[in-house]
Amino acid sequence: MTAEIITITATAPDAAAAGAPVLTDDPTAHRVLTGDRPTGPLHLGHYFGTLRNRVLLQDQGVDMFVVVADYQVITDRDIADRLAEHTESLVLDYLAAGLDPERATIFAHSAVPALNQLLLPFLSLVSVAELSRNPTVKDEIAHSRQSAVSGLMFTYPVHQAADILFCKADLVPVGQDQLPHLEVARTVARRFNERYPHADGSVVFPLPQALLSDAPMLLGTDGGKMSKSRGNAIPLGATEDETARIIRAARTDADRHIDYDPVDRPGVAGLVLLAALCQDRAPEAVAEEIGDGGAAALKRTVTESVNEYLRPMRARRAELAADRGHLRQVLHDGAERANAVADATLAEVREVMGAI
Ligand code: ATP
Ligand code: MG
Hints:
disordered N terminus, binds adenosine-5'-triphosphate, binds magnesium ion, three-stranded parallel beta sheet, Rossmann fold, 356 residues, mainly alpha, globular, 13 helices, Tyrosyl-Transfer RNA Synthetase
């Protein structure tokens, strides 16, 4: 990571709501773009890593764009399996967590052609060497289900730059793994602005900044990054029994004394952190309370905390799930708004590039 990425600390001790992102200036002056791949149900890593911040920012009046990154599904797999189902489940999770489609523009990027067209000029702005040394892409290749690495795998961070820049977002609430991609988006914006300024010297794109939460990399039940497609996640929409089962199977260690040591005991620390986030307490305090109770007591605490925390969200999710037509309408309306914004940006890009 270079010094180009500016991260804004997402929490402040005196913030009105715990975990509230700190925007020192007028929230309505900002536009946020974030999103997820429709590869499976959202999990607690998403919630504490970015989704909670999205809702808080929306509620502060920030203009919110949320992309269902459907083309990104085929970066690391041959086909987009159960795409419609996963897309609906993402929208369900968004709405259940508190995103409001009246205020937030929720759309699939495949439904916005002008956004995708930006990929062409943007690809000309980065070198193959830059694309191939991206550490997140390397990690994803290691976990890929494909036998060969596709061109889309190397270029998807540039596509993600198009997701961010088409709507001129200046803030991007993400998990830690996304920081290299944000650096690509900043590089693309900077180089485009340098190469193609307006006649009056003004520039087309703002430089987007990452907004990291205080849980930028939640670990899964195997001690690795919690991920939809690694079988190590606690889905937001899981039942209480499923949640208990997943947590019971989590990898811990033989030391009965529970402490919070993310470096030497990542499995235990990941569980302690989950309970702490759900209880809105310091992880050290949660660990101390469990003390010599061992992994069984830790897992009981985590299960109870997670289930209690998610209960209202899961109830809302079940209500919303009854109306699939509404979910499709949310995506339809979002795509309409996103298309208007993308068409305007593409027209501006064509103009500064001298297209006829
Ligand atoms: P997949 O396994 O299909 O890649 P994923 O779980 O990594 O799924 P993405 O859709 O790739 O989820 O990521 C969506 C957003 O959620 C990104 O901003 C990412 O940084 C964030 N995120 C994902 N996993 C975590 C995690 N474990 N902790 C914090 N943030 C996370
Ligand atoms: Mg991912």
